[in-house]
Specification:
Number of helices: 19
Largest sheet: 5 strands, parallel
Strand order of the largest sheet: 3-2-6-1-7
Distance between the termini: 81 Å
Number of domains: 4
Bound molecules: S-adenosyl-L-homocysteine
Helix content: 25-40%
Strand content: 15-25%
CATH topology of the largest domain: Methyltransferase, Cobalt-precorrin-4 Transmethylase, Domain 2
Oligomer: single chain
Number of strands: 24
CATH class of the largest domain: Alpha Beta
Radius of gyration: 27 Å
CATH architecture of the largest domain: 2-Layer Sandwich
Structural class: alpha/beta
Length: 527
């Protein structure tokens, strides 16, 4: 008895430890989402609460699980949206409530990011925390402008400096003249654009050769990266002429010399091109990745919002009879995600799937299943419902077989009908989500598109073209915005675009994302 009591007390204590929260101070890297660490990605996906800055790429927020609370605590120069002590107490409060909190900061959290202050506040409050480093802006600038930050015989030191100091500090901490006197050193100046003329003049006054090669790189690692190279004496004018502004790094030092030869990023075929794509299907991140790998700045217009909407009775009926089904068909990654969320509410063991075989459409859907270590036995080369039906029928296993088709509020009628009539299968639909239009008036990407336009807009499906057309009013371009050339993935999409009264400026040679991208390069490529 005593023993029992003891152990039950022990388990309560253990429970308390697991229930107490933690704050992860995580570096989000310089911009390009692929530059975050694996640890960052894992923590973002597991977070209960995510608190982020304005320089954090929006794509990172999409890694959050459904239900994660996302808090914007961004600051822009001179305009502190959320005071630091409020951020500190928010982190403490959430962690004490047992939450897993990710505090996501641009670049590295401890380099000019006030991560140190946040860590100190957490330590003081007795909250557990972890710090995950990130690629800091100076390193990204070096890599993406082809500038080695140190080089044998030219520079044996890298100094990171801030050009924007706490205005409350009585005297300036950075003694620019003393840095101007350093030899064989690379200076990387953060937040210096507002005072660039003053900073460079002070460096020169301190002994820096006015002819020293200097570079300014804005938005490093992203498709919208821009840079100029000049000397310490001419840079302030060059920056003004090119209208470069924050966020940018000023690099000063011999290492900048000759960087044109290794400037690989700005030489990519789509570098400097703004390409709009529509987010209506799962394949978009694939298209986005392809375009970004070629240097383009991608604007992903979120035309459609997917929300979980479960037909509870239908779900229970299917889950209780799961063992009697032969195939389950997924037509979207969301379908896979929502199905398994519901499945694991009822079953603890993945083996409860029994002998179900998996069929799916689209690379993103297949990836979602592969992540669960489930083998996809049927996936057509062309990503349409019709080809999936053909591929399933071709397996010769459909006659009298029981099939689940996971759907959204669009019922996949063609697919289902074909499986029933041509394949002679017994099909049950399982609706798990609904797709609806996004409010484009409030969306920042749509606002950017309206204000500045784009060089091209790509339509990778008929449904993308029709949702674009149906929301055209919310996407009307400003007077001086760039009118994009419209590209279509294939005949079906082209037809829809024409029916909707949209121009078609180019079409892919065959209906694939690669061919669509190739057509774009042919039309707009830099080389
Ligand atoms: N913790 C961040 C720095 C925050 S201070 C880091 O480690 O990178 C913000 C400044 O970082 C900006 O004003 C700019 O100077 C620099 N910066 C951040 N991202 C940048 C980018 N993609 N390209 C150029 N400079 C960048």
């Amino acid at each position: 008895m005593l023993c029992f009591e003891k152990s039950s007390r022990l388990s309560v204590a253990a429970l308390k430890t697991t229930a107490s929260g933690i704050v992860h101070l995580v570096g989000a890297g310089p911009g390009e989402p692929d530059l975050v660490t694996l640890r960052a990605r894992k923590l973002i996906a597991a977070a209960d609460v995510l608190v982020h800055d304005h320089l954090v790429h929006p794509a990172l927020l999409q890694w959050c699980r459904t239900g994660c609370e996302i808090v914007y605590a961004g600051k822009t120069a001179g305009c502190h949206t959320v005071p630091q002590d409020e951020i500190d107490s928010l982190l403490v409060r959430q962690a004490k409530a047992g939450k897993r909190v990710v505090r996501l900061k641009g670049g590295d959290p401890l380099i000019f990011g006030r991560g140190g202050e946040e860590a100190a506040a957490l330590a003081k409050a007795g909250v557990a925390f972890e710090i995950v480093p990130g690629v800091t802006a100076a390193l990204a600038v070096g890599a993406y402008a082809g500038i080695p930050l140190t080089r044998r015989h030219a520079s044996s030191a890298l100094v990171c400096l801030t050009g924007h100091e706490d205005p409350a500090k009585p005297e300036t901490q950075v003694n620019w003249r003393s840095y101007g006197a350093l030899k064989h050193t690379t200076l990387a100046i953060y937040m210096g654009m507002g005072r660039i003329r003053h900073i460079l003049a002070e460096l020169v006054a301190g002994g820096l050769d006015p002819a020293t090669p200097t570079a300014v790189v804005q938005w490093a690692s992203l498709g919208r990266q821009r840079s100029v190279a000049a000397t310490a004496a001419t840079m302030a004018d060059a920056v003004e002429k090119a209208a470069l502004a924050s966020p940018a790094i000023i690099l000063v030092g011999e290492v900048v010399r000759g960087h044109e030869a290794t400037d690989w990023f700005e030489k990519l075929p789509l570098f400097g091109r703004r390409v709009a794509i529509t987010r209506t299907r799962d394949q978009n991140s694939e298209l986005r990745d392809k375009l970004e790998a070629l240097g383009a700045e991608v604007l992903e217009l979120p035309l459609i919002r997917v929300t979980k909407q479960v037909d509870k009775d239908g779900l229970i009926e299917i889950l209780t009879e799961l063992g009697s089904y032969d195939w389950i068909v997924f037509t979207s990654a969301n379908g896979v995600r929502f199905f398994f969320e519901e499945f694991f509410k009822g079953f603890e063991d993945v083996r409860s799937l029994g002998g179900l075989r998996f069929a799916c459409v689209g690379a993103a859907t297949a990836r979602e299943l592969a992540a669960l270590h489930l083998k996809v036995e049927c996936a057509p080369a062309t990503a349409t419902g019709e080809s999936l039906a053909d591929a399933l029928i071709a397996t010769g296993s459909l006659d009298s077989a029981k099939v689940i088709v996971v759907t959204g509020n669009l019922n996949r009628d063609t697919l289902v009908k074909k499986l029933e009539t041509e394949g002679r299968a017994i099909v049950d639909r399982l609706p798990l989500y609904a797709t609806s239009r996004t409010d484009l008036a409030a969306d920042p990407v749509a606002a950017d598109f309206r204000a500045r336009g784009a060089d091209a807009i790509l339509f990778a499906s008929s449904s993308a073209a029709s949702s674009f057309a149906s929301q055209a009013a919310a996407l009307t371009l400003a007077k001086d915005a760039k009118r994009p050339l419209a590209g279509s993935i294939g005949p079906q999409t082209t037809e829809t675009m024409k029916t909707e009264g949209m121009p078609v400026d180019f079409t892919a040679k065959e209906p694939s994302l690669d061919a669509l991208v190739a057509a774009l390069i042919k039309k707009l490529g830099n080389r």
